[in-house]
Each structure stands twice: as C-alpha cells, then as structure tokens.
C-alpha cells in the first residue's frame, strides 16, 4: 500500500501501523483488547502496527471507528 499525494508523504503499511499503535495506546487498550473489539487475534493487530500486514478492506471501517481516524488514512480507496 503506497499512495502519494503531492506534498504529502505516501501512505504505507508502516505509517498506518504507527498511527494505529499511537491511537491504541492513547486509548489505553492492549493488543488483546483491541483485537477483541475488532474481532481479530492480538497478533494480527501487532502485524498491522509493525507494518508487516496491511489492514484488509473488510476491517478498515471498524479500525477507523475504534481509533477515531478517517478511513482514507488507513486505505485511500476507502474514501
């Protein structure tokens, strides 16, 4: 996943992962708690946060809602 807009850094799995990790920690959620709320294993959340796995389209809306971020920040095609 890499989309560039003039003047804005490209959206990458690693960049999205950092945002998700920061938002999860700001809400004082463990990986397990976030995973339970999103219906995925804690290791999946860890993979997203580390940029090893892209967030599947089917989870973009729920992730965006849980962390109060624009879905387009996670997946530019979700807008």
Q: Can you walk me through this structure?
A:
The chain has 79 residues and is mainly α. Helices cover 57% and strands 9% of the residues. The chain has helices at 13-26, 31-38, 42-49, 57-67, 71-74, and strands at residues 3-5, 8-11. Strands 1-2 form a two-stranded antiparallel ribbon. It is globular. The mean pLDDT is 89.
Strands of the widest sheet, in order across it, are 1-2
Q: Output mean pLDDT.
A: 89
SSE pattern, N- to C-terminal: EEHHHHH
As residue ranges, the low-confidence spans are none
Quickly count the helices: 5
What share of the residues does DSSP label as strand, in percent? 5-15%
The number of distinct β-strands equals 2
Helix content: 55-70%
Largest sheet: 2 strands, antiparallel
Spatial shape: globular
Distance between the termini: 15 Å
Class by SSE composition: mainly alpha
Q: If you compute it from the alpha carbons, what radius of gyration comes out, rounded to the nearest whole angstrom?
A: 12 Å
């Amino acid at each position: 996943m890499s989309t560039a807009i003039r003047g804005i850094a490209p959206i990458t799995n690693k960049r999205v992962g950092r945002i998700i990790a920061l938002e999860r920690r700001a809400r004082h959620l463990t990986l397990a708690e976030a995973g339970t709320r999103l219906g995925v294993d804690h290791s999946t959340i860890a993979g997203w946060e580390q940029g090893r796995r892209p967030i599947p389209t089917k989870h973009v809306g729920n992730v965006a809602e849980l962390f109060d971020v624009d879905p387009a920040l996670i997946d530019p095609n979700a807008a």
